[in-house]
Specification:
17% strand, 2 domains, Rossmann fold
Length: 384
Amino acid sequence: MRILYVVTKSVEINTSASIRNSGIISGLIDLGHTVTLLSTLPDKKSGYYDASLLPQGVKTLYLADGGSQKILDWLKRNSLLKPIKHVVSRYINKTEIYDTQKWIINHVDKVNFEAYDCVISSSDPKSSHLFVYEGTVKKDKKVKKWIQIWGDPFLGDVSISNSQNRSEIYKEEMKLVGAADDIYYVSEATLDAQKRNYPAYAGKMHCISIPYLKERIFPLRDLRSVFPVELCYCGDYPSSYRNIRPLYDAINSLEGVHLTICGASDIRLQETNKVTILPRQSHRRVEEIEEKADILVHLSNSAGTQIPGKIYQYSGTNKPILFILDGDKDASKSIFSQYKRYVFTENDLKSIHFGIKSIIVGEKRQSPVPEFDKKRIVSMIHLG
C-alpha cells in the first residue's frame, strides 16, 4: 500500500513519540508498504537531532514551520532573548490548546491526500491529526482510509496545564476522533477512558503496544562479582507525573551500585558519587548509556493512563529491567507481568532496594519480548 504518515514534529528530533513513530514506520516498510513521511523540517542544530531515527527506506515530504514555532526558533537562536522566549512559550501554552507545530496547516494545499491508499496521523504533536483534518474534511476531500494513532490523549494528557480550556479541548478531540476511520491508543487504560469520553466512537477505537526499534543483545556481567553495579534511567521526569525521588534516595543509600539519570525535568537533583545526572541526550548517546548499564530502570507515571514508552525499548534487550510501579499499579502490572520479564517494585526506598538486590543475586537470563516486535505490532493495524 501507499501510505502517507503524518507527524508534524520531525522524527529526527529525539523524543519518545519520535522513537515510537520510527518503529511503526519501519514496521510498515518491513511489511512491504511504501511510506511517505510528512513532517516539519528537522532542526539539525538542535541538541536532540539524531538522523538515525529516520527509518531506512522511507520517503520524506518536509514542510516549513510557521507561526509561533517560527518565533520561538528565532528567539532560541538569539541568546540575549532567551528570557523572552520562556515568557512567550508560557503565554502560548496558556492561550493555545495545540502545539506550536500547528501552523504547518498553512501548507495543506501542497499535499495530495487522495494519492495514498491510507493516511496515518500520529501524535504527539496533536497538530498531526489537525493537519489531516484541515487538508481533507475541511477541504471536502475524500481519503481511502484515515487512521489516527494517539500517544497521549488530548483531554487526558497529564502535561496539559489546568489553566487551559478543557471544554475547548474536549470539543476539538471529539471533532478529530469523529473524522477518523480507525483510532489506536497505546495503553489499555487510555483506550478505556477514551471509550467512556467519546462513546459514539468507541467502536472504532483500538489498542496497540509500542514497538521496540530493534533487538539489542548485550554481553552480560555476573552482577554478584561486579562493583559497582551500573543502573540507568533514561527518560524525562517531570515532577507532576513522574516521581524519581525514591529511586534517587534508594541508590544513594545502597552500597555497590551507581545510577545514571538521563532526561529533562523541572526539578534539580544533586549529583553524588553514586548518581550521575545528565540532561536529555541524543538517541545514539542514550543507547550507549543503556549498553553500559547492568540494570535498566523503568519509572511508571504517577498520574494519567499512559505507560512511558521507554519500557518497550528496554523490552527489546536481554538486560534485567527494574519496573518501578506508580499511579495505576494494578493495571500496569497486569499487562506486563504476563511476559515474566520484569522485576516489579513499589516506588519507595525499601521496595527499590529489595528489587535491585533480587536482580543482583538472581541469575535468570532474559531475552527480548517478541510481542513488542515492530512487524508484529504493525500487523495489528487495520490498514485496508
